[in-house]
Specification:
This protein has about 400 residues and is mostly helical. The protein contains 14 helices and three strands.
Length: about 400
């Protein structure tokens, strides 16, 4: 009888916004989601080793000191730390993330402003996007993505009956996104702007904003891209390279041409793990933004599709857990994180195959980058926290 009463209490709180009954024991993490994450992470670390050892060995800057495993060792260490971060994040209840969402948002905006300060923000390729921590660098925009998901979920739950009004359903979100985008334009960082705007629009859609507002939002994003095209020469160069990369195969189109060579060389079964040719200093960013091209070259079409299938299963499972979440806030956060993961995978593959203009979008769990990997694992840990409260598991 007591078990039945607990079940009734649980079901009554499932659709509430902020009902966290501490008397309800949390379950275990979702095993399929965790195993898919660990499998993709393991394959990703192996591919970093395969893709990076040539550049690490021949690095003319002297950063690696000729150590062919330089990038692999660092990525493996961050991956181990990331697993710990994921399981730690899965232990905190969703009420904790709701309480700190405002702090995370303010901290992310402060870091975006701080990166613009000379001497603090590190400049590379005519852009100031990184803060140097000494042992590594990180992009504050990565924190901003999860901050938008957490904080927008709070606002949507607070304004759930008023989301169709301009004052509550439009204005607060536009002000926040506008301020973030302004700081990102000053870096500049167009790829982060695109992802953050897309995350914001998805969150508003999930929050129940009428569809006609998204028409205006789409026009606004188009206008923003037009402004970026007019103001920033590197944006124009990337559009030209996208439309006809072979017109300047040794200049602006060089990166995407080498990526297409890499993908085309793989064929059906690939050249074999470790046998990529393009990674020998032909393909830029081969262990970072263009690691998917090396995957296609070494593992072929079949290997690349298997990896994309694993990503698809992870994304589907994430949405399933969000749909069965205990409360509305958890459902919004889970759907937002899963959408973010899906967007990065789709956009990265689209860039490598020249389906869209080249942007600096990494492949989650695969591309080299320590702090980005830690934040991705933290996000997946939050989804695992949501899975602990899924009623159907009990």
């Amino acid at each position: 009888m007591a078990a039945r009463e607990n079940t009734v209490t649980y079901e009554n709180t499932r659709l509430a916004d902020y009902t966290y009954d501490n008397s309800i024991e949390r379950g275990s993490i979702d095993l399929p989601f965790a195993l898919l994450t660990l499998l993709l992470l393991t394959v990703g670390v192996v591919m970093v080793l395969s893709a990076s050892f040539a550049r690490a060995y021949y690095d003319p800057s002297g950063t690696t000191n000729g150590n062919a495993t330089y990038y692999f060792v660092r990525q493996a260490l961050f991956a181990l730390c990331g697993v710990g971060v994921m399981f730690v994040c899965s232990r905190f209840p969703m009420g904790f993330y709701r309480r700190i969402s405002g702090i995370v948002m303010m901290a992310s905006v402060a870091l975006l402003a701080l990166v613009l300060v000379p001497g603090i923000g590190e400049k590379a390729n005519n852009a100031r996007r990184w803060i140097n921590l000494g042992f590594t660098t990180f992009q504050p925009s990565e924190i901003t993505k999860i901050a938008v998901i957490l904080f927008f979920s709070v606002l949507i739950c607070n304004f759930k009956e008023k989301m169709k009004t301009i004052r509550y359903g439009i204005l607060p979100f536009v002000v926040i996104l506008g301020g973030i985008c302004l700081l990102l334009v000053m870096e500049p960082h167009m790829s982060a702007i695109i992802i953050i705007l897309a995350i914001g629009m998805v969150m508003l859609f999930l929050g129940g904003l009428p569809l006609y507002w998204f028409v205006g939002g789409g026009l606004g994003v188009g206008a923003l891209l037009g402004i970026g095209y007019a103001l920033f020469p590197y944006v124009r160069d990337r559009f030209y390279a996208w439309l006809n990369p072979f017109a300047d195969a040794s200049g602006d189109g060089y990166q995407i041409v080498q990526s297409l060579y890499s993908i085309g060389s793989g064929g059906l079964l690939g050249l074999g793990l470790g046998n990529s040719r393009q990674k020998y200093l032909y393909l830029p960013e081969e262990h970072n933004d263009f690691i998917f091209s090396v995957i296609c070259e070494e593992l072929g079409f079949i290997g690349a599709m298997l990896i994309l299938t694993l990503f698809a299963l992870l994304i589907i499972r994430g949405f399933w857990l969000s749909m069965h979440a205990r409360d509305r806030y958890s459902a919004l956060v889970g759907a937002g994180i899963t959408t973010h993961l899906a967007m990065q995978v789709i956009l990265n593959v689209a860039v490598c195959t020249n389906s869209i203009p080249c942007t600096g979008i990494s492949l989650p769990l695969f591309s080299y980058g320590g702090t980005a990997l830690l934040l991705q694992m933290a996000e997946l840990g939050i989804v695992l926290s949501i899975s602990r409260d899924v009623a159907e598991k009990r």
